[in-house]
Design brief:
Strand order of the largest sheet: 1-3-2
CATH architecture of the domain at 25-93: Orthogonal Bundle
Low-confidence stretches: 1-19
Radius of gyration: 18 Å
Largest sheet: 3 strands, antiparallel
Order of helices and strands: HEHHEEH
């Protein structure tokens, strides 16, 4: 599969490619301001339908669909189309907690 040119719309049912994988909060810093703002809102909402996103952003539908397609292709969003209406949910993972080295615990005992 070839990647689309800038501004080209992807198929709305597109899933993130496996290589993209889930992202971390740090990865949000690499996004453009409108995409980062949308993704931050989606994180607080824990997902939203296309109609909800359009009502929130007040942007043109073509621009919103392009942004959602780009975020989905990059692995930031997952489209859950089993719900009615379909819901876009963030695809972010939490950072793993730090663990104490075993040698440190042995030296404390």
């Amino acid at each position: 599969m070839t990647s689309p040119a800038e501004g080209e719309a992807l198929h709305p049912q597109l899933r993130p490619v496996a290589a993209a994988g889930p992202k971390t909060m740090t990865d949000l810093l690499t996004l453009a301001e409108p995409e980062r703002t949308l993704l931050n809102w989606l994180l607080r909402q824990r997902g939203a339908s296309l109609a909800d996103i359009m009502a929130h952003t007040q942007a043109e539908p073509a621009a919103i669909q392009g942004m959602l397609n780009n975020l989905t292709a990059a692995g930031f969003l997952i489209l859950h189309d089993d719900a009615d209406p379909a819901v876009f949910k963030p695809n972010l993972v939490s950072r793993q907690p730090r663990t104490m080295p075993e040698e440190l615990w042995k030296s404390v005992e």
